[in-house]
Amino acid sequence: MYGTGARTGHIASILKIDGVKYVVESTEEGVRRTPWPAWYTASQVDSTIIIARLAPEYRKLYNESAAVELFKTLEGNEYGFVNIAYAWIDTEEDNYPHPLSGDMIGATFVLFNNWYAGSAINLLFLKGMNQRLKHYYGINANCTEVMCVFDYLNKLNITINYALTLPEKDGWLYDGKPMMVCSVMYMNLLKAAGIFGNLTNQLESGEFTPKDIYQLGIWDLNWRPEKCNVNNDNLPYCQVAGPWYWKLDNFSTIKPYAKMNERCGAEPMDYVRHPEFC
């Protein structure tokens, strides 16, 4: 997760559907389910796999049937390329990893549009911006070119940097369907399961990256089945595959709060090489 500093690249749920344990996830191939044994066998070859379990107080609230019902309505939908960037851009300056900066964003989109005109820029930027013009400003722009968006933003006297920070809202439809990246679908399943109580309608799933989810203070820090972390019990979660032990920064440390992650700067990795490893 280049823009956020996350130490995970994907997140998925395990749900029991019709008596079968499935991994349910949003991938580049779309929203799908895979039986746990088949998923684990395929994934452990080249992945580090960590399993986290809800803390007891949240497990008591968890309604798996409600999560399953939501998943069934999403199964087969496309991956959320349309809003992938909006989850981690919350501020005008503090979410852009080097060499990007807030001052460069407008020019970057124009150049991107010139180089990759058509489907790519429409998918990654324009559809999400059309949603913001519609739902925040009541403008049905339906822009198909970058300069169309800039014209509307100029009339509204707002910058592209600011427009990108407007939170993604649950319930927005793209081409008639919700489109979600892995973390957004995961968060929606947690919300459907009822673990957030009165906060449910004050959390926008589209604002959560994988890092935001593993840092949520909802996970069981004492759950260690025998197959986890063989020869290493220093991790506060269950790692079942991977070539080395994987540390998740600030795992399960932040209690949920209203409008969580809507105005947060990111902490991208600095990628500085250690002299001994160069």
From TrEMBL:
<protein>
    <submittedName>
        <fullName>Predicted protein</fullName>
    </submittedName>
</protein>
<keyword id="KW-0812">Transmembrane</keyword>
<feature type="transmembrane region" description="Helical">
    <location>
        <begin position="104"/>
        <end position="126"/>
    </location>
</feature>
<keyword id="KW-0472">Membrane</keyword>
<keyword id="KW-1133">Transmembrane helix</keyword>
